[in-house]
């Protein structure tokens, strides 16, 4: 991998981005995380977040430190990535019904309402958002992307792991990446 590229792990919320960060770490990629958000029942192995990412629209001062590392960023923030860096985006995809079920379960655990927006409306909003994000990614000359299916990873990780390794330069420990996948955490199945 080009040590100057910033590796971004992205996707919709509840699409497997934390799992991919754990896999990259196991494979030997350094991470940019701050551990401010602690593991909980929704992500028992941790969130792998870096809080400053959420302010990227106003503050990009952390980006030089992200070169050669992986950082997690929700898909809605990708459009704020400045054009003066090179990015390799590992974009997690997951069956929409599972994303919605996982989000609903998270809201239930937090005691928050689950009926403010119907699943149909939320799925439509997410699908439109994904189309916009993919169109944006396709238009960026400084961005390479690999789309990875969460569902494929948890069912049989070896091929997606090999694809991620090739995408990021081919020097990762694939056995460790495979071992980092915990099928027991695949709870909201279709």
Folded structure, characterized:
- The chain is an alpha/beta fold and 190 residues long.
- It has a single domain, classed as P-loop containing nucleotide triphosphate hydrolases (Rossmann fold), CATH 3.40.50.
- Helix content is 38%, strand content 13%.
- The chain has 7 helices and 4 strands, in the order E-H-H-E-E-H-H-E-H-H-H.
- It has helices at 17-27, 63-66, 96-110, 119-138, 150-155, 158-167, 174-179; strands spanning 6-11, 70-74, 87-93, 143-149.
- A 4-stranded parallel beta sheet has the order 2-1-3-4.
- The longest helix is centred in the last third of the chain and has 20 residues, at 119-138.
- The radius of gyration is 16 Å and the shape is globular.
- It starts with 5 loop residues before the first strand and ends in an 11-residue tail after the last helix.
- The model has no long low-confidence stretch (mean pLDDT 88).
């Amino acid at each position: 991998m080009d040590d100057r590229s910033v590796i971004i792990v992205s996707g919709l919320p509840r699409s497997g981005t934390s799992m991919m960060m754990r896999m990259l770490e196991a494979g030997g990629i350094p991470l940019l995380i701050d551990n401010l958000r602690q593991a909980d029942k929704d992500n028992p192995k941790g969130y792998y977040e870096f809080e400053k990412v959420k302010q990227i629209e106003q503050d990009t001062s952390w980006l030089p430190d992200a070169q050669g590392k992986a950082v997690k960023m929700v898909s809605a923030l990708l459009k704020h990535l400045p054009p003066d860096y090179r990015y390799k985006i590992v974009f997690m995809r997951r069956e929409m019904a599972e994303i919605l079920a996982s989000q609903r379960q998270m809201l239930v655990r937090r005691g928050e309402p689950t009926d403010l927006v119907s699943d149909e409306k939320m799925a439509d909003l997410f699908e439109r958002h994904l189309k916009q994000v993919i169109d944006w990614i396709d238009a960026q000359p400084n961005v390479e992307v690999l789309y990875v299916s969460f569902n494929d990873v948890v069912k049989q990780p070896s091929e997606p792991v090999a694809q991620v390794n090739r995408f990021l330069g081919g020097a990762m420990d694939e056995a460790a990446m495979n071992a980092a996948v915990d099928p027991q955490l695949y709870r909201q199945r279709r």
